[in-house]
Amino acid sequence: MLRFHGVTDAGCSRQDNEDRVHDDEALGFFVVADGMGGHRHGEMAAELAISTMQYYLESSRGRTDVTWPFGYNFDLSLDANRLATAIRLANRQVWKCAERAPEFSGMGTTVAAALVSGAHAAIANVGDSRVYLHRAGALPQLTTDDTWLSAVMIRGALSKKTLANHPMRNVLTQAAGSEHDVEVHTHDLTLEPGDLLLLSTDGLHGVVGETICSMLSAGLSSGRSAEELAVTLIRAARSAGAPDNVSCVLVSYDELAP
């Protein structure tokens, strides 16, 4: 059984909200997207990406004649392949839209998504929106950040002190619509009763990241619902200044009673 709730908020400094959240219980499809491009073009990119993904996931569900325009990765589950293909198709659609007119140049969006079927969850992302797993009081990140900072940290080229204030630390290295094709990061996961998936844009984890785990643990121990927990996280980001749009989707998993 899944219980879920998504919330998006403009934050304390932005007039427009270019974040989008989406959930589809029938598909088990959950996603957050952080659009960019200004003048409402980020909003367009996020909405186009989500609608493209929704269409492909619906059309590929339960079919034996599914097409795989980018090939099939046999190291991944069927749902992880579906989700990765959906994101790459979304990238193509946003890329094509950005090519139509000069004012759309630079339009793009991050994507972090989960596709849940029974106890199996496929996770995928591009950009710096994230999916976390809250289990037994811990909150590991399941996704990979496509940022300059992440790339440099992997290479170990600069010290942590230098990186902490580097002007390029938050620059994205890829997002949906940023280039003709993107590398989608995927993860397959078997859920356990009591697990909680958190999908978030950087307006949330970039502001209150260090306290998210304790807030979720405290909320779960007191029996709070996914909706209450999501609202608590958004309020915490706003209390910390929320300089960007803030969005999250929480998905709680429990086994069905026999």
Mean pLDDT: 90
Q: Please give the count of helices.
A: 7
Oligomer: single chain
Read across the widest sheet, the strand sequence of neighbours is 2-3-4-5-7
Characterize the biggest β-sheet: 5 strands, antiparallel
Helix and strand succession? EEEHHEEEHHEEHHHE
Rg:
18 Å
Corresponding CATH superfamily: PPM-type phosphatase domain
The CATH topology label is Phosphatase 2c, domain 1
The shape is: globular
CATH class: Alpha Beta
* Helical content band: 25-40%
Poorly predicted ranges: none
How does this structure look, described?
The chain has 258 residues and is α+β, with helices and mostly antiparallel strands. It has one domain (2-253): PPM-type phosphatase domain (Phosphatase 2c, domain 1). The protein is 33% helix and 24% strand. The protein has seven helices and nine strands. The strands form two sheets. It has a five-stranded antiparallel β-sheet. A four-stranded antiparallel β-sheet has the order 1-9-8-6. Helix 5 crosses helix 7. The longest helix has 22 residues, at 78-99. It is globular and about 50 Å long. It starts with a strand and ends in a 5-residue tail after the last strand. The model has no long low-confidence stretch (mean pLDDT 90).
Task: Describe how the helices and strands are arranged.
Layout: E1 2-9, E2 19-24, E3 29-36, H1 41-59, H2 78-99, E4 108-117, E5 120-126, E6 130-134, H3 148-155, H4 160-164, E7 185-190, E8 196-200, H5 202-208, H6 212-221, H7 226-239, E9 246-253
Antiparallel strand pairs: 1-9, 2-3, 3-4, 4-5, 5-7, 6-8, 8-9
